[in-house]
Amino acid sequence: MMDQASKRSKGDRPFYQPPENIPTSAEIINDARQSIGRPLQVVKTKRPFTPREDRRSLFGPTSTRNPETRPPSAFSLTSRHFDGADSRPASGTKLSPLPHRPSCTSINEEQTPRVPTEPDVEVLLPPKPPTDPNKATRKVPRTRVIHSNSVDASSPDSPGINKSGSLTDLSSRQTEGSTTDTSRRTHSGPKERTPIPKEERGEGDGKEMPHRAPSQASVRSPPRSASSREVESRVSSGGTKRTSSAGSTGRAGSAGKRDTEESQEETLFYTQNIAPRLEELALLGKKREGDKLCECADSLYKLLQKENLLGKNCKQRSTILKSVFKLLDLEEPKVLLRVARLILAFRVSGNNLLNVCKLVFKVSRNEKNDPEFLRGNILELLSKTLSCTDHTTSCEALIYCVGAIKFLTGNTTIVKQLVKENCIEGLGQLLDGINKTNRENGKVNEQLGHILVQLTAALRNLADANSSREKFLNCHIVEGLCTVVDTYALDGDLMLNISRIFSKITLHTDCCTVLADQPSSYKSFINLLNKHLQKSDMVVRVCFVLGNITAKNDEARVRLFQENKAFDVLLSVLKLYLEMDLKAQGKEEKPEEGERGNKLNKREDVMIKVVRVIANLSINETVGPLIASNALCIDLLLSILEYKEIPTSEELVLNTVATINNLSYYSVKTSMINQHQMRVIEALLKLVLADNMEGMIEASRVFGNLTRQKTVRDFLVQHKVDQMMVTMLDSGNREVVYISCGVLINFMVDEEKRPALKKEGGVKKLIEVLRDFGRTDWELASLVCQILWNYSGKITSSNACFGEQEAQDLLDLLIEYTDQDSALDSSFKEEETDEEMRKYYYETWREFYPVAEQLLHRLETHQSDFEPLENPGTP
Description:
Layout: H1 2-11, H2 25-29, H3 32-36, E1 123-124, E2 144-145, H4 170-173, H5 178-181, H6 198-201, H7 216-220, H8 226-237, H9 253-287, H10 290-306, H11 317-325, H12 333-345, H13 350-364, H14 378-388, H15 395-408, H16 412-420, H17 423-441, H18 446-462, H19 468-474, H20 477-487, H21 492-505, H22 509-516, H23 521-531, H24 536-552, H25 554-562, H26 566-584, E3 592-593, E4 599-600, H27 602-617, H28 623-628, H29 631-643, H30 650-664, H31 672-675, H32 677-688, H33 693-706, H34 710-718, H35 721-727, H36 734-747, H37 754-759, H38 762-773, H39 778-791, H40 798-802, H41 804-817, H42 820-830, H43 835-861
Antiparallel strand pairs: 1-2, 3-4
Helix pairs in contact: 9-10, 10-12, 12-13, 12-14, 13-15, 14-15, 14-17, 15-18, 17-18, 17-20, 18-21, 21-24, 23-24, 23-26, 24-25, 24-27, 26-27, 26-29, 27-30, 29-30, 30-33, 32-33, 33-36, 36-39, 38-39, 38-41, 39-43, 41-43, 42-43
């Protein structure tokens, strides 16, 4: 009798109390907290919805920038706005005069006059020396060359230079037509520069060079020396492709001859190939024949590109640009883009660069013109402009250039092409340059801020491309944007764009890691929340980014929580938007259209993101107990549950319950969850009764932690929650079954609650769960055995306790499952498993074995065909 009583007393203990003198008790318990509650979970949420802007504008309708200091979005632009010579310095400062250098110091030095490279520089030609040393020198005013096309090198007053580089006798150059040469028009056309054969220059070598028939202008103009023509060519073109603009004709005779021949070939090429196309462009422009004009412009571009005459290599660059500028008065977008392509390809600067960027910006404002940007290489040229333009001297031009790119990135097809054309790299270089300038100046430049608004808006769209993430990381754009956040924290437009970029790229772990590793990132984000607390668009994205970082990095959870006043700021955000939402209740509002036509409550969206950050922070075992002990935090979370309904605010409610579940995991004395556990239970009971499966699952997870307290178990039984948990065992969803098992383990601790399990068919359902899931999920099988162990604490007969058929089925399953070979062979056959999965099955089976072995021993010990007497002493 004493032995039997001793056995009964041992069998009465709850599962989580260690049995005496049984060595496997530690394995049976195996962390009671984990057995009755679900492990901490990361909370997920949707990325904030960004509505598409209806109109393309330089600064959006919600911009807070001062209209007086920002560039305009609308302007007039015609050909008269362009400078024909493309010569004005970008800084707007006047060039200092060139120092005077004599054309030659002696006959032996063989020097030519030095000619500047820029076509607009004023060149003062030296006075001609006397032809006869014995005659008096006649004073002749120096000739002023204003423009490349105004050089009058054939004037009889101009000095002559022979083939060897020395000055020639002027009397030998006086020809019959010299008087008509001086009357030549200052701005002469291409036809008036017909090249002169070698024999006329005295350089004939027995072969004649082909040339066009002399035009009327060339008939009027007498032959000029090669040296004078070379001077004119250099002044007009800003230097040849093969010789220095400073001049290299001081070489020996052969070198001077080669340079002269090259200049003649280039002039001939221009006359025969380029000039006719320019004339055709002008004619088509007058006739306004757009399609033909586009074909002609494309033909000219290909020709210049083939001959390497784009950029600043072409001598006739200014002449070509003048002709092209005249086409800017046309209104057809496809024509304007062809013209803009030519202008950009010539690498213009100053006012012309500003105006061509305005031109592209103007065309890009209408999304109907987007297909035209996919023709030719205009996107490539725009991308190159980003990295080749000085942001300090061409700030306004870059604003419109990057603004145009921003518009174009709204088109997904163009985005892919821009990524291929290294647009992200160009924007990254520009971003680094601006950060460097601000760092060196030690102050914020407002105009550079205008560029950054366009730049970040473009990056925001480019971040959507699949291939862009790697470029973002390689170009260190994340680091650059963090620097901008520190520098321009008060710029609302700029901070909103950057928060949108981060909200996209932090969906990926590698970008989260880079951002989390930035030393000032946490401080910067908290600072943004403080400074822009009322701007829900920015706050919701900053909180979303913090949620992404803390979801994937445990170190980030600690660093964010330890940041000065960081958690207080998060709670202030949650409190503000909760109060705003409470005040708005009952008022008629017009909610914005969200994704897929859903109504969007911005205040609620902010709360969803903040609650998610709190949930993710609480996963850390150091931070979690501290948050659970924060009275304000728990009060705010419970307030959300108490006034929000799951049908209208499902995501907010579910995220809040998940946060409370994480916090309820920590059984510390200071836990506000434990102190307000009945308030928590009452709030959660509303979800269980709401006929919402997700709500029931989330609430049940909290029940699994809180049912460690008897008062909670009693309250839940009064509301028949134990019966709901038994019903959930029929679900084929492993997660649902797992959660219900976790709650039932605790209910079976109380002896008076055990009969309900058998009455509701729970024993039979648990055995079915063991049969269905056991071989593939030893963790769930272990939970089932733990429930049955607690349930059978007062066992006297297996058949009486479980039922005759149920006891036999359970006995057979436990015998099979406790045999290692049989159990694991069955597991491996169910799935195609690799070595890692086999190891996992073996380790989880080892945790299952001691629980199942003890339950099997209890069944075998109390196996009997006799029913126990209720009152053995009664006659």
